[in-house]
Amino acid sequence: MNAQAQKKQNDVVFNFFLAMMYTAAITVLLYYLYDGLSFYLTPFIERAHHEDYRNLRPAGFRGHGLGILGTAMILLLFLYSARKRFRVFQKFGRVSRWLNIHIFFGIMGPLFIILHSTFKVNGLISVSFWSMIAVALSGVLGRYLYLKIPHNILGRQLSYDELNQKKMILNRHLKKKYHIPEKLLSQIEQITERRDMETRSTLAVIFYLIKEDLTRRSRLRKLIEEYSAELSLESDDLQYFIKIILLKAKMDSETFFWKRIHSLFHYWHVIHKPFAYIMLLIMVVHVVVAVMMGYTWL
């Protein structure tokens, strides 16, 4: 088996493992949410009289256990930073896989913490809680921006020149295989490249990129249908043609927004990291105080 085939097989195994982790965590989360729904829907002032209060309250057996599970997941988030910074971890898998695990803990950890809190936070811990929410939401945005940055097969980010070279190679391939005229290539680029976005706000660019990802195929459909009809392509060739045109459109967009995406990713780090450290600091204080006051699980 060659290296490329082995990589694909490993990716399939990892993606299956990740899917199972999400399935298991979400199943447990939904079960506990459903099982305690009556308690969670009870007004805060009346919860002490609920039959499940001693079990589901933050200091109760299940409530405390959910807090421990969520806290463990949040602590495991920082393994991703260790993977990138310490050489001893760098032989254990690709960064992209560690990032996927990091995102899993970043999504599921806060959800278990929310159940632990019984949807009620106040005092100093509320700062940690909302920092946690900010970290989770900004993490979703960060993942989106990360996916907008082209990488090679080893996970290294492509420079602007490398990306532009790949774009030119793809254009030559289209011209050689399908005899696509320069006019059609320019039309595709006009759809994906928005010069007015160069001066628009950061938020406007993000919304535009999301909209483009959702509508790119439909906006290119007319051009694809017109040219594929002229070529009279067979079914398999037509599917490949559509795939390669969509790839070109995606690559044109990535090339055009390359500098802006990298700038956004830099500023995202500036926002994401402080919230993460605030969350961690107050969470540690919360755990230490809880233990010192005798709130142990077992």
Low-confidence parts lasting 5 or more residues at pLDDT below 50? none
- Written as H for each helix and E for each strand, in order along the chain, the element string is HHHHHHHHHHHH
How far is it from the N-terminal to the C-terminal residue, by CA? 51 Å
Inertia-based shape: elongated
SS field, number of helical segments: 12
Overall mean pLDDT stands at: 83
Number of domains: 2
What class would the helix/strand composition place it in?
A: mainly alpha
Number of strands: 0
What's the multimeric state?
Answer: single chain
Question: Would you mind describing this structure in some detail?
Answer:
The chain is an all-alpha fold and 298 residues long. It has two domains: 3-155 and 268-292; 160-263. Helix content is 77%, strand content 0%. It has helices at residues 3-35, 37-40, 53-56, 61-76, 79-85, 95-117, 125-148, 160-178, 182-192, 202-231, 235-256, 258-292. The longest helix has 35 residues, at 258-292. It is elongated. The chain starts with a helix and ends in a 6-residue tail after the last helix.
